[in-house]
Amino acid sequence: MNTPLPTTVPDVAQPRTSMDELMLAMDIVDTLRHEQSLIERELASEQRDDAFIERVQQIYASQGIEVSDALVRQGVEALKHDRFAYTPPERTLQVRLAEVWVDRWRWLKRSLIAAGVALAGTLIVVVPNRFLAQRDYAAYVDSVQSLQQRAQRLSSQFGNLSVFPRGWAVDAPRSVAPHLAGLGAELERAQSDSVPQLASTGALSPADGDQFAADPEAQYAQLAPVRDGLDVVQQRLSAVEQRVKAGERLMLAAHRFEAAAARLGTIAVAEGAAMKIAETRDRASAALAAADDTAAAGAVAQFEQFVTLLDLSYTLRIVNRSNVQSGVWRYHEDAPGGKNYYLVVEPMDANGNAVTLPVTNEETQRTETVSLFDARAAVRIRTRQG
Q: What is the distance between the alpha carbons of residues 69 and 77, in angstroms, rounded to a whole number?
């Protein structure tokens, strides 16, 4: 810091002030400045300057420093004229920039600390929150897309089911045609009733990120009615799908029944078998008329089996080959002598190929389709007299 020059220029003849005296004068001024209350009291009266100078000398004497009256007077005069006082420059932009440049390292350190704190806060708070927000929004978008895809699947399933009624209208047998026509109308009503729910889901679009972040619960609440509507459509579709598939099974059974009946008309039926085949045919016809697909499938299968047997041409041949018995016997209390005798036979067609036949076991009453079975034989036992 540059020391202000004295207000008066000393004579050439005067001795130059030493540096120690100049420094002491500056210290006196500084001491007087810190004793401002004392100055205000003592300098209020010119008559008491001598007493004031003496008190200042006492202050320095208590510190072991001896000062002259002239030096103290010089300090008092310098204080009055604001000598040795620092007057800061005006706070202009240039001054402020200079101060910043002087303290640049301190400001750099503070800036680095502030940047580190801001970065740490971002990593700890902002980044995780942003990640969670993006994850929540992605889940919301997935929910919307899932509803849209579900609506598309339901619409496709309705379209797939509508193929069956179109086929029924062309070749449904007369015995089941009225029932199938009713199923077709039921499917059409179910599809028509589902159009509003499917259309509203197709027009659904997810809210943007800002709207979702503002109120996620409200956005999810808007999806609830859509989801409930699709649940209703799903239940409606499941119910009509089961009935349509049952109708398809019923139509197939009706076709098989008609084919077997037509085949039966070309076969000469013995009187003993005519009654049984008529009973089986009536049972299948009644199941078809009642639109009971399960009962109709079983009755028609039995009717087809009887017709197949009537149309078969085969010869029962007694088995005569190694490792296979040609006959067996079994105990039976109602048989003569307590035994039943059986021949092991196999049915063969005209080309010598084995034929499979449904055979009922007389002991278990179960019918199985086999190509080798035991046929009970009437055996007369003759006893030789010796």
A: 12
CA distance 243 to 87: 104
Between the ranges 44-58, 114-128, 195-209, where is the mean pLDDT highest? 195-209
Is-contact 332 340, C-beta < 8 A? yes
**Strand pairing partners for 373?**
345
Residue 69: in which H helix or E strand, if any? helix 69-80
Which is it for the CA torsion 314, 315, 316, 320, positive or negative?
negative
Tokens of 323: 């490792």
Nearest residue to 155 via CA among 200, 208, 124, 107: 200
Between 383 and 47, the higher pLDDT residue? 47
What the block records as the tokens of 335 is 């048989």
Name residue 327's beta-bridge partners.
Answer: 343
Q: Which of 378, 376, 379 is nearest to 342 (CA)?
A: 376
- At 172-184, the pLDDT tens digits run 899 899 999 999 9
Q: Return d(Cα 52, Cα 58) in angstroms, integer.
A: 10
CB atoms within 10 A of CB 179: 20
Q: Residue 15: pLDDT band by 50, 70, 90 thresholds? A: very low
For 86-99, b where at least 16 C-beta lie within 10 A, e where not — what string? Answer: eeeeeeeeeeeeee
Q: What Rg, from alpha-carbon coordinates, does the chain have? A: 60
Full DSSP string of 229-274 = HHHHHHHHHHHHHHHHHHHHHHHHHHHHHHHHHHHHTTS---HHHH
CB atoms near residue 144 (< 10 Å): 19
DSSP 372: S
State how far the Cα of 194 lies from the Cα of 157, in Å rounded to an integer.
12
Residue matched to tokens 């067609």:
349
Q: Which two tokens stand for residue 152?
A: 């598309």
Q: Please count the other Cβ atoms lying within 10 Å of the Cβ belonging to residue 50.
A: 10
- Give yes or no for a contact between 34 and 56, defined as CB atoms under 8 angstroms apart: no
Place of tokens 């895809």: 149
Structure confidence at residue 1 as a pLDDT band (50, 70, 90): very low
Indicate the pLDDT class of residue 288, thresholds 50, 70 and 90: very high
Q: 344 by DSSP, 3-state: which?
A: strand
pLDDT > 90? residue 157: yes
